[in-house]
Amino acid sequence: MTPTRRFQFSLNISPDEYLAYYRGTAKYIQTTTTSGETIKFPASPLKKYLTHNGIHGHFEIEIDKNNKLLNIYKINVKSDDKGIWL
């Protein structure tokens, strides 16, 4: 079995912002993970999470040892009263 790595992050992309990805003028999302690492990945897998409000929530991305995107999941996370992820 090939080892994989997972990263968690939060996204808040407005419908207008995602339009650039949808049209192909922007192809990648770059964000900071909950552990402070910067990651960049293709925007197209997020299309399944697009609503009329855009794309909002907490996600987990899974990549293989060659940094190939395997999957992206929307996840539920808990935070304390200060917004700190638990």
List the helices and strands and how they pair.
Layout: E1 4-13, H1 15-23, E2 28-32, E3 38-42, E4 55-64, E5 69-75
Antiparallel strand pairs: 1-4, 2-3, 4-5
What does this 3D model show about the protein?
This protein has 86 residues and is mainly β. It has a single domain (4-75), classed as OB fold (Dihydrolipoamide Acetyltransferase, E2P). It contains 1 helix and 5 strands; from the N terminus they run βαββββ. The protein has one helix at residues 15-23; strands at residues 4-13, 28-32, 38-42, 55-64, 69-75. The strands form 2 sheets. The chain has a 3-stranded antiparallel beta sheet. Strand 2 and strand 3 form a beta hairpin. The longest helix has 9 residues, at 15-23. The N and C termini lie far apart (30 Å). The model has no long low-confidence stretch (mean pLDDT 87).
Number of domains: 1
Walk across the major sheet and give the strand order. Answer: 1-4-5
**What is the total tally of β strands?**
5
Order of helices and strands: EHEEEE
Helix and strand content put the structural class at mainly beta
Mean pLDDT: 87
Distance between the termini: 30 Å
* Sheet of most strands: 3 strands, antiparallel
Count the DSSP helices.
1
Radius of gyration: 14 Å
**Can you tell me the residue ranges where pLDDT is under 50 for at least 5 consecutive residues?**
none
Q: What is the level-2 CATH architecture name?
A: Beta Barrel
CATH topology: OB fold (Dihydrolipoamide Acetyltransferase, E2P)
Net shape: globular
Approximately how much beta-strand content do the residues carry?
Answer: 35-45%
Helix percent band: 10-25%
The level-1 CATH class: Mainly Beta
